[in-house]
Specification:
The chain is mostly helical. It has six helices and no strands.
Amino acid sequence: MIRRVDLNEYEQSAREWDALVGVDAERANVVFDRLHVLAKEMRESADGRAALVGLMAHESAGVRLLAATECLVWDPVRARAVLAAIEDAGGLHGVSAKYTLQSFEAGTLDLDW
């Protein structure tokens, strides 16, 4: 079972990352690295994966972007739809969604670094 603190920490960190992207790249990168560690832990359990799936419906586009990227492996239909919608909305997250989808389709997306 996923520890509730992991989901809360992931969501809070994802919100923080979203606020920093485009404003303070250095701090955003530090937060992104922390998110990556949390996501890898969450991916290891069914509860953790379910929590990430739930975050694909989050009100924040940045949180949806991060969650959908993680979910591509086990829920590609929904994750692709979320990423496509973010891409269609444009902006910095739209560009990230576009290249995430392209990398996934090409088989080059590495979520295990």
